[in-house]
Design brief:
With about 100 residues, the chain is of the alpha+beta class. It is built from 2 helices and 3 strands. A hairpin with a 2-residue loop joins strand 1 (about 30-40) and strand 2. Keywords: RNA-binding.
Length: about 100
């Protein structure tokens, strides 16, 4: 299994911290992480998803249970890169949008 470094940059800040910081500075609601599992034979593989700016973004890889933080770091890295490459625009949750 692949691992994602817990340090995202030279200053030692984690991907989760960088994502949270970006959300704060752009007035996007804080990201919400979910842990997901998949039974594979006699073992369980674990991954993560993060909901940010109205999008559910999955981690790229599956991990052993002892590496759950790596799964969250992976999802945070994917989400941060997604937000930075697609441009930042706040999307109100569907239940908060008015339809006429």
């Amino acid at each position: 299994m692949s691992t994602t470094s817990s340090n995202a940059s030279n200053n030692g800040q984690s991907w989760q911290d960088r994502l949270e910081e970006l959300c704060q500075t752009t007035s996007i609601p804080s990201p919400s992480f979910q842990i997901v599992s998949d039974r594979r034979g006699g073992r369980t593989a674990w991954s993560s998803q993060v909901v940010v700016n109205g999008q559910s973004i999955a981690a790229r890889f599956w991990y052993d249970g002892k590496n759950l933080n790596n799964a969250k770091e992976d999802a945070a890295e994917v989400a941060l890169n997604y937000l930075l490459t697609t441009g930042l625009s706040y999307q109100a949750p569907l239940h908060a949008q008015k339809s006429w």
